[in-house]
Predict the structure.
Amino acid sequence: MPPAKKRPRAYDMSRTRTAVLAQFAHVQDALRTLTPEQLALPGLGEWTVRELVAHMTTALERVSRSMELPEPAGGPKPEIALLEWPFSTAGNAVGIAGHTRDLAEAHPDLGALYEETAARFAELVPVGAGDRLVTTRAGTMRLGDFLVTRAVELVVHTDDLHRATGLDIPYDRQALAACTRLLADALADKAPGGSVEVRVPPFAVLQCIGGPKHTRGTPPNVVETDPLTWIRLATGRTQWADALEAAQVSASGERADLAPLLPLMG
């Protein structure tokens, strides 16, 4: 009998909305300091830093555009659950890449784009509408769930921007927590079980991978790392072997090898 999957974690829509706006503001502040030379640096894959920064506005704008449309038909049940979202992202890469280049070309003033994007989001996305269905690239989702994915996008790309430019950009604590927890829960959903304990202090502790379940004392199979290293592992920015070699992750026990399960999203 396969291991039972746990009930999905609940997120407070008001706190997530606030976190998304706060993380966006941190990136907006960083944008004001970027020089033309920095904007021309390699950003992510084939994107320049300028294109990466332009792309980050879509984290909010996709929500705003969805809220301008009538609520999707088809009943109250969403087409995609929050825990399914991380596994749905890889198939959208080509379309996102093309749209990002067009967006960067169409908006030479990125500062104005950020101001407009934040204002539209604040106006169009109300607090307390978490159960409203919205249309996303992956299918219809609850608004509250979609906002959690926006926190993930912003945190992941804030780290991309930091690694590309060296800027020390703050992370909103709630946004970083939501990103860490969703990706941790996605691992537990992908490999349910209780033989390995994964610790990402201070935000997440989970058990995963089928096998003998630990019930008391020190678990025999333990993985521990910090939130940013975990996020980089889960998104493929860092390879498991490299993180081990750099002592960015500790793994004890014969089952404590997450390499076959990573990355979780592309």
